[in-house]
Design brief:
Largest sheet: 9 strands, parallel
Strand content: 15-25%
Number of strands: 21
Helix content: 25-40%
Length: about 500
């Protein structure tokens, strides 16, 4: 059965849209499963609970789509537990409290399908080394994952962590990522906690260091442990599905910058070297968690830009800081940070956490939509991956269908793979300027058809055209246009 896509349009008039509203931009959210912070509100025990989980997610995705977001980091592995039907780790208690034996429901598969219906990319957010607290409700953490990883788990600051210096840790974590990439149609693997924990100097890895240090200083060895894992993940993912993007949430400050005398927690202090990952071509993009303001934010944007090495850097913004129990920010701070990110030609923004957007805390979602995300956007192309430009769609037609214009076109083929989507443009003028965000009607449309709202109360004429768009975010040349005149008046 075909699924018909209906869109709503924001029709704007004005100059300078290319500068003010970039057409290519990552607009992401972190959707947190742990502790039921964003989704789901409660674990399921019955088929009714499953329906409730699904309806909650659909509501979230609908609101994000309406606000023209385009990427979801869905927390897929939490702390040694997962949200999908894994053969390696248990399903999280925040997803289910009874074993699902009566339904084929798989939360990750469902989420991916619903994201793709809306033209949203779904990236599996993967927490790496942490395995959870030492004690749960006063009792020793005896979870399945802790037990099966007892030889490579370390106690540190009241938590269990997998030891990054143990080669078996890499093998185990990579097997989980392989399982996700092989089994699910994810658009990316987004890693988190790819580092040593806070107070890293006290992390108990002396035995591992003596065994595997090979004459390196401990600092060099620790950094190399993280790099080796990151490189292996990238190579494994790309060997299986080269279009699947690899990214990480990283500490918001790489290192101290000139003139900064404060004592900050930095990426280098926990042996994380994202600058090298980008330089060595082992990440498609990074998302620095820049949950700060003022001098702890603006200078570091420029620092990250200088370290990008031609790959994408997407500043992560802490909308949770709007909470009165946090820093009680006003939305002006977030507005300034998005604006500064654009002025410095960063590749977009990500927002933590989704629930603050859904609750429209202090009007934050309205502010983002009305000031920055008025138009859809496409994702920037992965230019470092050599892929043939997709073919243009053909045979574009338009016809009135009730209150809509029905656009239809011919599939664009690409090596027999179902990895081609479509972007739809319209303009009063020909040729259509596809670099003008104001002309983009819809992005990443899955099927070769689209319903566009029709206002017969207004006499107007528009050119419509379609481009193909692949999973590397490459875009084809435009199709031949169609011209359609609206208005219930005698012609």
């Amino acid at each position: 059965m075909k699924r018909f896509i209906v869109i709503t349009l924001f029709i704007g008039i004005g100059l300078g849209l290319k500068a003010q509203f970039p057409k290519e931009e990552i607009r992401a959210v972190w959707l947190t499963s742990n502790y039921s912070l964003d989704w789901p509100n409660k674990p399921y025990r019955s088929s009714d609970d499953i329906n409730e989980q699904q309806e909650e997610l659909i509501d979230i995705l609908d609101k994000l789509k309406e606000a023209n977001f385009n990427m979801i980091f869905l927390q897929t592995r939490l702390r040694g537990d997962v949200i999908y039907n894994s053969k390696i780790e248990p399903v999280s208690n925040y997803i289910q409290t009874v074993k699902n034996t009566w339904s084929k429901y798989d939360p990750l598969a469902f989420a991916i399908t619903e994201c793709h219906k809306r033209g949203l990319e779904c990236h599996a957010w993967f927490v790496t080394y942490p395995l959870g607290p030492e004690k749960i409700k006063g009792k020793e953490n005896n979870s399945q994952t802790v037990k099966q990883n007892k030889d490579k788990a370390r106690r540190h600051a009241g938590e269990f962590y997998m030891d990054p210096g143990d080669p078996k840790t890499n093998a185990y974590l990579v097997s989980l990522i392989e399982e996700i990439v092989d089994k699910y149609d994810v658009d990316g693997i987004h890693m988190d906690y790819v580092r040593y924990p806070e107070k890293a100097d006290k992390f108990p890895d002396n035995v591992t260091y003596k065994r595997y240090g090979k004459g390196q200083s401990k600092s060099e060895w620790r950094q190399e442990n993280i790099n080796r894992f990151v490189y292996e993940v990238y190579d494994v993912v790309k060997s299986r599905k080269p279009w699947v993007q690899v990214s990480s949430s990283v500490i918001g400050m790489y290192d101290k910058i000139q003139g900064d005398k404060q004592n900050h927690w930095t990426a280098s202090s926990v042996y994380q070297d994202p600058e090298k990952w980008l330089k060595e071509g082992k990440h498609d993009f990074i998302v620095p968690m820049m949950y700060y303001a003022g001098d702890l934010f603006f200078p570091f944007i420029q620092d990250w830009k200088a370290r990008s090495n031609g790959r994408f850097v997407v500043p992560g913004l802490g909308v949770y800081q709007l909470d009165e129990k946090e820093s009680n920010w006003s939305t002006i701070k977030i507005k300034e940070q998005i604006q500064y990110s654009r002025e410095n030609q960063m590749n977009g923004n990500a927002f933590y956490r989704t629930r603050y957007l859904m609750n429209n805390k202090k009007g934050i979602l309205d502010m983002i939509k009305n000031n920055f995300y008025q138009y859809p956007s496409v994702l920037p192309p992965l230019t470092w991956q050599e892929v043939k430009q997709p073919e243009s769609p053909g045979d574009l037609t338009a016809m009135a269908s009730g209150m809509y214009i029905f656009l239809n076109w011919k599939f664009a083929e690409q090596s027999g793979e179902k990895n081609v989507f479509y972007n739809v443009y319209r303009s009063e003028y020909w040729p259509i300027d596809t670099n003008d965000a104001g002309n983009l009607v819809a992005a990443r449309v899955s099927d070769p058809m689209l319903f566009v709202p029709l206002n017969n109360a207004v006499e107007s004429g528009y050119y419509y055209a379609v481009t193909s768009y692949d999973r590397y975010h490459n875009e084809s040349k435009m199709s031949d246009p169609v011209y359609f005149v609206t208005g219930a008046f005698e012609k």
